[in-house]
Specification:
67 residues
Length: 67
């Protein structure tokens, strides 16, 4: 995900039982990027507001990371 957000942005990676995809979260100003790493190695990126990111992560059982 570094090619999208740069090297200075911290990316947190989660393995979530409710999805076969690995979930990657990067906080950026005004929200964050939620990325699903598919089993075939492809990625699906979504740009979210803070509230949208919080809602999507809550559905996955992930607390919004600080920072």
């Amino acid at each position: 995900m570094g090619e999208i957000v740069g090297d200075e942005v911290h990316v947190t990676v989660y393995d979530v039982p409710s999805t076969p995809d690995q979930v990657m979260v990067a906080r950026v100003r005004g929200g964050g990027i939620l990325t699903f790493r598919k089993p075939d190695g492809s990625h699906v990126h979504t740009l979210n507001t803070v509230d949208g990111l919080r809602r999507r992560l809550a559905r996955l059982g992930i607390d919004l990371p600080d920072s």
